[in-house]
Structure formats: structure tokens, C-alpha cells
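Input sequence (350 aa), recorded before submission:
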Amino acid sequence: MEFSRTFLVTGGAGFIGSEFVAQQIEAGNRVVVLDAFTYAGHRANLDWISAQEGQLVIVEGDICDRTHTELLLGTYEVDAVFNFAAESHVDNSIANPGAFVKTNVDGVYRMLEASRDYYTQLDEARKEAFRFIQVSTDEVYGTLELDDPAFDEETPMKPNSPYSATKAAGDHMARAWFHTYNFPTIVTNCSNNYGHRQFPEKLIPHMISKALAGEKLPIYGDGQNIRDWIHVSDHCRGVFLAYAKGNVGETYCFGGNAERNNIQTVDAICQALDALRPRPSGSYKELKSFVNDRPGHDKRYAINDAKAVEKLGFNRRYQFEAGIAETVKWYLDNQQWVSRVLSESQSKAA
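Predicted structure, C-alpha cell format:
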């Protein structure tokens, strides 16, 4: 069966990667998912996707295995690589930075080299169309004060955690491979994602789970740390636009235009829960509590994505409050998914 294009999507069984996979399957492309299926990558994130025979290929493997990656690229005659694979939780990076160096630095290096070797063997027409998209985060830019302008593509990188430092290294390598080897890379940096199938350790699904269990809602420090929230669906459409319309060697930022401090974010979750599944004893907001701040906690993130809007035609379909309400409803309706991925993660950790 013929498909429009074939994409290799690393980390395609994760939260953001699986949304991108679903969008590309719907668009008629073939997707080869390469995922290590560690604690945050789950087949449950892909099982719901309706694909034609041969359109979705799921391969368990590590992006650090260069030989395996080269085999996949050649076997499936891949037209572009989207590297979503990453260790991504700041708290985990503080506890175990080595795992982040392995995946986010060495893994990116090996993916770049495998892809570059494959690229050199393509004919000129396929070389012209090929892209390597390095999917990254706004955290590489460091932190902002309340009156600072938002991050954009020209903001110097000043990472403050092992996670953001390793992601910055990957971004730098992608840029260097373009300038040194003329290899067609594009880097994307996005603000905090939310939406369906986000692993329950992350802020929004974690608060939903705690609230449903009637437990305290733990907020770091004074709750004034600010994040710019983008719906995962909007982010993934932006990543594809960077591939389809972006210039090689460049960076594109995607934000949600939704800066909220952590108290406001938790309040939005509680408000949605109050409407959808009220507590007999009062609002979920009464469960809010404050815990010791984590080390090196960045004060504020915000993205100015004017370049993506102007150059790529990027737009956001989700406003924050409506998106949060939809997200909360999804988790309420999909507690079986939550139980499954948590159980799988515990089994992998054992």
C-alpha cells in the first residue's frame, strides 16, 4: 500500500510523540515508531490509533543503538526523522542525571550520525526533501523575571537543571550538524504541554489523580512559578509545520500564550473537577497544600512564537481554560488508561 510519506518518530509511544503519530496517521503518512518503552512510553498511547495495514510500525529499541536506527531508516526508506525521544522530568534529572545525559546527549548524537549516514546515500531529490527535526523545550533558555520579554529563537541558552542542560546539548548538536555537515536539521522549542495521555507524574495529571483520591494537592514553594501552557495537539501541529514549511538550520518556538502560575493552574484543574465531579464536602481547591520547593526551580517560562506564526502559519486551536476542562474530562473518562500505565511503569521499575 502506498503512503504519502514515511516518518521515523522516536519516542512515539510517549505523551507528545503519540499525539504526533496519531496526527500523521490521520494525514495518510506511514509512521515507524522507535521507542524504548521505559516508564513513560506505553503501547496504550498507540493502541487507540486507527491505521491501515502497514501504516503504523512499532519497534522497541533505544536511540543510542545507532546500528538499529540505520537499519530502520534504510528498511522503511524514511523521508524524515522526528526526535521526540527524551528523558523529560526535571525532578528525575536531579535524582539521576546520568540517564538524561545518555538519552538526551549521546542518544541525539547517535541519531544524528545514523541519519546522516542514511542521508548521504539518498538521491538528490530525496536529499532535498529529507529533514531531521529535533524536538526540544523552552527550558533550555533558563528562567525569566516577571517583567522580562518572553523567550524567542534568539534568546541565549542558559539551562538551569540537568534536564534542560542535556536538551540544550542536543539542540546545539543539531545546529552544529547543519553548519558542519550541511545536514538538514530543524530545532523546535515549545512551552509546557498538557492534554490527553500525559504520564501521571506530570503536574496536571498528577493533580487530577491526587484530587480524585481526596489527597492533598502538593504545590512547590509559594506556587508563584509561572509556566506557559500549550495543548499537545497544537504543539504537534507546529512541529509538522516546521518540517513542511521551515528552513533547514533554523529554530522555531511554539507557545500557548497562556502564562499561569502554579496556583492558577491548580485552581483551573479544581474548577473543572468541581463542575464535572463535585466533592460532597466542598471544592477541590480546599485540598491545595504547599511543599518545599525543588532545587533550581525556574521562576518563569514564556514563549514568543511570532516567528512560527508569521513564517509557518502556526495558530493555536486551544485556549487554556477550555483545554484544561477537556483534559480533566478525558482523565475522568479514562481512569483505566491511568491504572494501566502506572502498573506498567511499576513493573518496569521492579
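Checked by second reader. The domain at 6-198+230-257+300-318 is CATH 3.40.50.720 (Rossmann fold).
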